[in-house]
Amino acid sequence: MVKITVSDKRNPIPQSLELSENIKITTWGAIKVNKADFFPSSFQIKSGEKVIYIDPVEVDGTDKADYIFLTHAHPDHLSLKDIHKIAGPETVVVCSKGVEKKLARHNFQLRKVKPGDMLDLGDLKCKAVEAYNTKPVFLWIKAHPKSSENVGYILTLSDQTVIYHAGDTDYLPTMRDIKNTDVALIPVGGDNLTMNVEEAAAMVNTLKPKMVVPMHYELKVSDDINKFKSLTAGEIQVKVLQ
């Protein structure tokens, strides 16, 4: 059983990126996954007066969510405790099919999506995109098989800022179709769980976002993050949050 707690290496001050006067991305920082200190895929986005969470795990904030986006059902991405903490009666929870199965008996406003689906939420547009492994963890077994229909999300905010959260994934051919991204939140160095450093850098150099934020890595592998930065094209801003 996977045990998730707050890491004692967590920065006591939440780390934020202010993209404009009205848009801010925040992370509460490191969690402990079993015994490993880990920077998660968990973010809050404030767009004007709207509050958006992606894969909230061990969040410290008390801001109620307008929208919660969940990529898949692994416990470092899906925390029922945190969803209950930030969800109100009007919160829309957008999720993949594996997550919907786990949340179906709870009283949430669920919107199930699969890769390729698009949602128009008025002040927020969402496209669900593929997120899966091409390489196995053991023999033929993959941590994130394509058949699970896990997703990443491309979010277009009210001012047309585009944020791409890749979820847990390898470098996929369909990523070449993702255009005009302002911020990409990308897993780095995940053994056979996600892209390794070289794959992540190659993906980012193809995608060409204005800014990239590495996620889903162990804190002890800081050399991986430095290598990722060195392999990323110079015009792409790399922001490391911890």
TrEMBL record:
Pfam families, A to Z: Lactamase_B_3 (PF13483)
Gene3D superfamilies, A to Z: Ribonuclease Z/Hydroxyacylglutathione hydrolase-like
Highest taxon listed in the record's lineage: Bacteria
Tell me which residues make up the Metallo-beta-lactamase domain: 39-216
Query: Which SMART domains does UniProt cross-reference here?
Result: Lactamase_B
Q: Which InterPro entries match?
A: Metallo-B-lactamas, RibonucZ/Hydroxyglut_hydro, UPF0173_UPF0282_UlaG_hydrolase
Name it: MBL fold metallo-hydrolase
